[in-house]
């Protein structure tokens, strides 16, 4: 049984990979409903300097397809992220943020903004980074560079 009525998670979801699936699996495990923030094209390029393979609409379509294939009929909504935290700092119904272990460090900042907005703190649930065959984290950046595939298999030697 889920521990939270609503949880939030997010990402760019440019090349959906095993790490994204692990993040989503944990979110669906602990939340009755999941708000999934997907970074806008503008925010992805300005905040993280990312050059994406797919625009926002395609990334959302790919994400919906992956959720349907991997998780079936689950309750979620997609929110466009034009800022670091999106609905997680404006929606009181969010009880937890499911984040990668590297993003968990942003939890105190999230809860400070929530406090300033008159909202209770959200629990931050960390999901370990899924590692590729070389022991380094799977990432869309590495997939775009042709180093690994979506499951972390090496495509070219280091």
Radius of gyration: 15 Å
Contiguous low-pLDDT stretches (5 residues minimum) are: none
Q: What's the arrangement of strands in the largest beta sheet?
A: 3-2-1-4-5
Mean pLDDT: 92
Can you write the helix and strand succession as a string?
Answer: EHEHHEEHEH
Give the fraction of residues assigned to helices: 25-40%
Strand content: 15-25%
What class would the helix/strand composition place it in?
alpha/beta
Count all strands and give the number.
5
Distance from N terminus to C terminus (CA atoms, Å) equals 43 Å
Question: Helix tally?
Answer: 5
Q: Let me know the largest β-sheet.
A: 5 strands, parallel
Shape: globular
Tell me about this structure:
32% of the residues lie in helices and 21% in strands. It has 5 helices and 5 strands, in the order βαβααββαβα. The chain has helices at 18-30, 41-47, 56-71, 107-116, 140-144, and strands at residues 4-11, 31-39, 76-81, 96-100, 123-127. Strand 4, helix 4 and strand 5 form a beta-alpha-beta unit. Helix 1 packs across helix 3. The longest helix has 16 residues, at 56-71.
């Amino acid at each position: 049984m889920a521990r939270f009525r609503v949880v939030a998670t997010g990402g760019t979801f440019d090349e959906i990979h095993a790490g994204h699936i692990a993040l989503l699996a944990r979110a669906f495990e602990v939340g009755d409903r999941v708000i999934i923030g997907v970074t806008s094209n503008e925010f992805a390029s300005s905040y993280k300097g990312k050059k994406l393979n797919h625009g926002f609409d395609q990334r959302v379509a790919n994400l919906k397809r992956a959720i349907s294939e991997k998780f079936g009929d689950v309750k979620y909504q997609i929110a466009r992220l034009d800022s670091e935290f999106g609905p997680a700092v404006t929606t009181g119904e969010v009880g937890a943020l499911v984040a990668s272990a590297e993003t968990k460090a942003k939890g105190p900042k999230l809860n400070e903004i929530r406090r300033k907005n008159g909202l209770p703190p959200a629990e931050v649930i960390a999901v370990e980074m899924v590692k590729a065959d070389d022991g380094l984290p799977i990432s869309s950046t590495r997939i775009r560079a042709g180093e690994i595939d979506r499951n972390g298999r090496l495509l070219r030697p280091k």
